[in-house]
UniProtKB/TrEMBL annotation:
InterPro entries: 4pyrrol_synth_GluAld_NH2Trfase, Aminotrans_3, Aminotrans_3_PPA_site, PyrdxlP-dep_Trfase, PyrdxlP-dep_Trfase_major, PyrdxlP-dep_Trfase_small. It catalyses: (S)-4-amino-5-oxopentanoate = 5-aminolevulinate. Its EC number is 5.4.3.8. It is an enzyme of class 5 (isomerase). This is Glutamate-1-semialdehyde 2,1-aminomutase.
Amino acid sequence: MTVNAPATSTRSEALFARAKAVTPGGVNSPVRAFRSVGGTPRFIAHADGAYLTDADGARYVDYIGSWGPMILGHNHPAVRAAVAEALLGGTSFGAPSEREVLLAELVTRLTGAERVRFVSSGTEATMSALRLARGVTGRKFILKFRGNYHGHADGLLVEAGSGLMTTSGELGAAAPSSAGVPEEYAALTLVSEYNDPAALDSLMAERGHEIAAVIFEPVVGNAGVLIPTPEFLAALHRVRDSGTLLIADEVMTGFRLSLNGATGLLGLEPDLRCWGKIIGGGLPVGAYGGRAELMEYVSPSGPVYQAGTLSGNPLAMAAGLATLGALEANPGIYQQLDRYTGQLAAGLRSAADRAGQPLSINRVGSMLTAFHQGVPDGSIATYQQAAASDTAAFAHFFQSVLAQGIYWAPSQFESIFVSAAHGDLELERTLAAAEQAYQTGGTL
Ligand code: PMP
C-alpha cells in the first residue's frame, strides 16, 4: 500500500475547472476550495479507513474525517452494513419509523438529554435550539462568542469586525460577517470574547434580562482549537442566574471528546445541546435536545415550529445508530484516539523544534491545532491570539505534507480530526512528512 501524491493532479484540476463553471467557486462548502492555502482542491474518488483517494489515484492519510463525522474511519464495515440494510427498505418515508426511536433512545441514554429532535445538519440544530430558547423565554437577543461558528443561519453569521466587536465588557453591536444578513438581524446577536469571564459577566449584568440564550462551542474547533478555562466555564453557567438558557453547541465535540461529548468531559450543565457530524455517522443528521420541560415547547407538542422533509431519514438514522453503537460498545476508542493524537502532538512539537519553526499546539483528545506562532503550547485561548498565527507558514506546511500524502485541514483556523482507523503506520508517515515540511519551512 503506497501513499503518494503526484506532482500534478490533472483529473482534480479538470474537475475543478468544470465545477467552477457550474458551482460558485467550484465547491459546495467554501473551505474545500483551498483558498487560504492555495493550489487545486483534490477531488475525492473514495475513502477507506484513515485514507482518502483522489481522482488521480493519489492516497492521503486523512485528518479531516469529513470535518468530524468519521470517527470510526471511512467506509466502516458496521456503518456500511447498516446503511445497506436500511437501503433495502426504502430511502425516505415522511412518516415516523423505528430507527428514529432507537437513535433517540441511544442519544438520550448517552447524553442524559430527556428529549431530542433530529434535523439534517448542525446549522439546523443551532438555529432551531435558538428559536426554542426565544420561544421559551420570550426574549429577542442571543449572545455568541467571537470566533465560534454555529452554522450559517442569518443571526449566527456575525463575527469579529474589530471596530464593532464587544470586548472586555464593552458593549457593541456585532457586524454581519456575510453579505445578505441584514444589520437588523445581526443587531439581535451580541458578541463577547471567548475565555473572557469578566466581559461575559458584565454583558450579562447589563443585558442579561434581554438575552434568551448564550450559545458556545465547549471546546472551540472553528478558530483552531481553543480550550475553555475553568473560570470561563463558571461564568457561562452563571448566565442562567439571569433566566438565560445556556446552549452548548456540541456539533463538533459531541461523541468525539467522550461518549457524552464535552459536556461529559468538562462536567458542563447546559440547558440545551446541539449535535451534528458524528451523530449521523457521515450522513446528514443534526439534533438538539435537553430537558423535557424545554423540549416540549417544540411543535407539535408546543408553539415553537420546526420541521423537515428528510428529518429522521432511515439511511441517516442507520448510519448514526451504527456509529454511536460502535462507540458505546468500544469506549476504549477514546483512549486510543487520545493516545494517537498525543503522540502526534509530541512528534510535531519535536519536529518543529528540530527545525527551529515556531509552533503552538492546542489539543483536547482527538482535536488538535498546531498554530504557527512562537508561544507556549496551550497558551492560545482567544480568537485574537489564534489570529496572530503565520498563515503563510501554515500554507507551506499544508502544501508540503499534502505532496507527501497527508491531507491536513486546509486552514490554520481549523481542528484536525483523528479516527479510530489511524494507527502506528499513519503516525509514522505523518511525522516523517511534518519533519520535511518544517525543515523546508518558512513561507512559500
Ligand atoms: N456548529 C459547530 C460547532 C460546527 O463546527 C459546525 C460545522 N462545522 C456547525 C455548527 C454547522 O454544522 P453543519 O455544517 O452541519 O450545518
